[in-house]
Every structure is written in C-alpha cells, then in structure tokens.
Amino acid sequence: MKSPLWILNSALMVLFIIIGSVLFWSRPERLPRAPLTVIPVKTTTRHESPTPDTAYIYQHDPFGTYSAPPPPGEADMKAQESIPLPRPPTMRQITQTPPTIPTFLPPIDLTLKGIISSQYERDSRAIIANKKSKQEALYKVGDVILDAEIIRIDANKVMLMRSNGQQETLFVSATDAHADPVYQQAEGLRSTRSPVKKIGENAFLVDPQVFTEQITNLAQFIDALDITTVYDQGRSIGCRVGSIASTSIGGLLGLEPGDIITMIHAIPTDTAHNRLAIYHHIRSLSLDDSLTMSVIRNNTTFEFTYQLSTLYPTNRPFIPIAEPAVPENIRKKSLRTPDKTMKQEMYKQDKRAMVEKGGRSSQLRSGR
After folding, report:
1. Domain ranges, ordered by start, for the chain
2. What DSSP element (H or E) covers 68?
3. DSSP run (H or E) holding 88
4. Angle 336-357/272-283 helices, nearest 10 degrees?
5. Could you read off the pLDDT of 314-334 as tens digits, one per residue?
6. Of 292, 281, 289, nearest to 321 (Cα)?
7. Does domain 196-322 bear CATH number 2.40.30.170?
8. Torsion-angle region of residue 226: left (phi > 0), alpha (psi -120 to 50) or beta?
9. What confidence tens digit (pLDDT) does each residue in 243-268 have?
10. Going by C-beta distance under 8 Å and a sequence separation of 6 or more, which residues neighbour residue 118?
11. Does the global pTM surpass 0.90?
C-alpha cells in the first residue's frame, strides 16, 4: 500500500503540468513592433538687430534741438595749447607727534614688615605698615591699600598694582631685593655676579656669599643639578647629574649631564650617612678652604678642586654657618634626634630605591 502523502504529491504534480500547458497554448500572439521614425528638428537662425546710426537720428531731429558743433579752428587749437599744465602738489612738512612719556608715581609710602606664607596664595598674609600713620595691618591678595591693590604675595615679597597701572614690589629685606632677578637685570648685575670663576682645567673659585644668595638651601641645589642616585647591580655608587644647562650653577661648577659624583672631600656619596657628613663638612668651611670632588664622565674619573674665595670685594665678609651653641643635655634631645630621624628617612629612601631599581645586571641604574 502506497503512502497517502506520495499520492498527494503526484496529484499536485499532474495538476501543475496541466495548468502550465493550458497557459502556454492560450497566450496571446505578440504584436509586431512599429519601426521608429526620426522626425527632423527645424533649426532657426538668430538674426542680430542692426546697430542704430546715431548720426541719422541727429540729422532727422524732429524737435530741432540739435546743432552740429563747429569744426575746430586755429584759435581753439591755440587756446587749448595756452592752457598751462597743473602743477604738482607741494610737499607738506609732516609734524611727527612726540611719543607720550608715561608718568610714574612716586614710590608708595609703605613698609613690608613680614609675611605669613602659606601653601596656597589665598591664605598668605602680609604685614604692611604705613610710613605716615605708623599703623600696621594684615593684608591678603586683592586688598587695597592707599592707591594700590595687592596682586601677589610670595615668601619674601609683595607685588602691588598702582592706580595708573604702575607695578611695585615690596621686599622683606634689602638682601632679598638685591637678589631679585629683576633688580639684577636692571642694575646689570646678572652677568657680572657669577658665584664661580674657572681658574684652571678642573680648578674653580667659589664666592660663598654670592653662592648662598642664589642657592638658598640644599633642596634648591639638588633640584638645580637634577641629582639622582646611581646603582650598579643593586648597590649605590654615587649621585648622577641630570639635565642641566651650561649657564646653570652645575654648568658653572664644571659638571655636565650624565656625570656621576662618587666622592667629595674623600667621602663617598653612596650612602645617606656619608652624604650627611659631606653636608656638615661643607657647612664648616671658611674662606680659602678647598674642596675636592671625584666625577666619573664617560668611564673616566676626573678630579675637581673648588676653593672658597671672595670674587667681589664689595661683598660683606662671609661668616660660615656654625652649629648653634646648645647645652649638651639639650643637644642630646633636640639635635641628635632630628639627625637620627633624617638618617633613618634617607636610609628608607635608599632601600626603597634599591628594591625598585636594583638587580643583578651590570648596567647602571638610577632612581630617586
């Protein structure tokens, strides 16, 4: 017995064939297509209008308003020739307006007594006294005093803007005023007051007075030389000089970028304890004392010699910074504890740098 599904498929197939045959034989005949005829397009030529003759219009003037001009005679020709040519314009003297010379107000009658400096300038305060009234008060940025407005408060100076746009600066002391770059540039002292003078191949004279005016603390000196600790196979071997300019304090001292300072006054610079001893030794130096420094440059060791000397006789006598006279019982509590804490902190920094930058490679490694 055959499946009913097969019978249904066969019936549908037969029905499809029958319907297709009927549609094929009953389709209408296709009519023949008529040929296309090309219709010629008539082209028209453009006729240009003739140009009107103005002379004909003048001759046939219906209103009689036109009269022909007389022919030019000799008199007219001579009259035209007798007309003089116009003369060129005369040069006028241009008076140049003289430049306006700005008028400056006299210095303001104020005295800067002190500054309460803060990390944020908005919290800094300046103690300013009026010379006439002898009154002192605290001022902040934006306050108005007499005819001036305070626009900036630094650690050692206050900048004011006067009513006419004139800018003035008040300093805490005359030393700060003389050390200011603007004052040095105005007085021509920038190029003449160099703290270092080269006297030999690797020998230099250092004026301690000028040096301390330009480099006020150890952190500023380290930042000026961009000093980092150098490691070889995880062991500190000295301090490397970073990116410095030839006109900077490091360049004046004869150093170059990439130099490795290994020893100062026969004291190695590899540990924090030795660096602290070098710092105390430099503080104890006096005039005419010398200092030696060993530097590795391109795998070659150089010896530099620095002698403290007065380069400018007008300077005040140099007084070395000495340790304060403190009783022994107080010294043990107040002086040794900070030194010990400083040493421990420096040891921690060196140890942290050795862990982060150390290794067994023979290449030199550097880290803060």
Report:
1. 110-187, 196-322
2. none
3. none
4. 130
5. 544 444 444 444 444 444 443
6. 281
7. no
8. left
9. 888 778 888 888 889 899 999 988 88
10. 124, 125
11. no
